[in-house]
Amino acid sequence: RAALAAERKFFLSHPAYRHMADRMGTPHLQKTLNQQLTNHIRESLPALRSKLQSQLLSLEKEVEEYKNFRPDDPTRKTKALLQMVQQFGVDFEKRIEGSGDQVDTLELSGGARINRIFHERFPFELVKMEFDEKDLRREISYAIKNIHGVRTGLFTPDMAFEAIVKKQIVKLKEPSLKCVDLVVSELATVIKKCAEKLSSYPRLREETERIVTTYIREREGRTKDQILLLIDIEQSYINTNHEDFIGFANCYYTEQLVTCAQQRSTQLNKKRAIPNQVIRRGWLTINNI
């Protein structure tokens, strides 16, 4: 009390503070701080109340969920197992279809790599199947002579043509089977990536990888058998009447070969005629390719 009285007397007697002595001193400071605290509580309380109510509802819901929880309940274990396996399937599909939530911006993976195998790697392997024209002509010559035997033939025998063509068709086996191996390898990588979420359950992860990998290996064998079957089908029957086949199936005499070739070339040029190519300086424009 003595200190407050001395403080009051000081402000009332001091010429600099005399005119505002009622707003000076410890009592006024207490009143101002109380008002600030009250205002702060009034502003913060509604949001705090709403947050607490939300947390309370969440906790009550969780309590209700675990009220009858039994750790050894087999139904809960089965449900958890099914959920994890289902999530594995969803992740696998997303990585193949390209609809994942997290997009990798550093490298290709999953379906994108398989797409590149089909549209870049496989055509590249086909392009690498080069052949020496000189050797091919020599093989054709030997095939024709061996089929004629002691006779001197006038026309090219079909058997010689088929023997050479079948030899070229067989070359498709290696790149086709290699394409299957590349796709299967990428699928195995996708399986390992998707199984990472099961790392908390090593036995489940190992068994899941084993089952899915075994399934893919079975399909790999069927796929390769199907590819070999398709190549065998192409070897069994050479369709020279197909519209994409440039041959002389209807020409029977040597003099008619040139005429047939010219007619065939003219027909192809009519089909593939390219109207008006426009090339401008500075910018290159080619229409209707």
Characterization of the model:
The protein has 289 residues and is mainly α. It folds into two domains: 1-67; 76-242, Dynamin, middle domain (Four Helix Bundle (Hemerythrin (Met), subunit A)). The protein is built from nine helices and no strands. The chain has helices at 2-13, 26-65, 74-97, 111-127, 133-148, 158-170, 173-194, 202-236, 254-271. It is elongated and about 145 Å long. It starts with a helix and ends in an 18-residue tail after the last helix. The model is unreliable at 251-255 and 278-289 (pLDDT under 50).
Residue-averaged pLDDT:
79
Overall, the morphology is elongated
- Can you give the helix content as a percent range? 55-70%
Secondary structure tally, helices: 9
CATH homologous superfamily (4th level) name of the largest domain = Dynamin, middle domain
Task: Using the coordinates shown, work out and report the CATH topology of the largest domain.
Answer: Four Helix Bundle (Hemerythrin (Met), subunit A)
At the first level of CATH, the class of the largest domain is: Mainly Alpha
Structural class: mainly alpha
Q: Which stretches of 5+ consecutive residues score pLDDT under 50?
A: 251-255, 278-289
Oligomer, anyone?
A: single chain
Pfam family, one: Dynamin_M
GO molecular function: GTP binding; GTPase activity; microtubule binding
Protein name: DNM2 isoform 11
Domain Dynamin-type G: 1-46
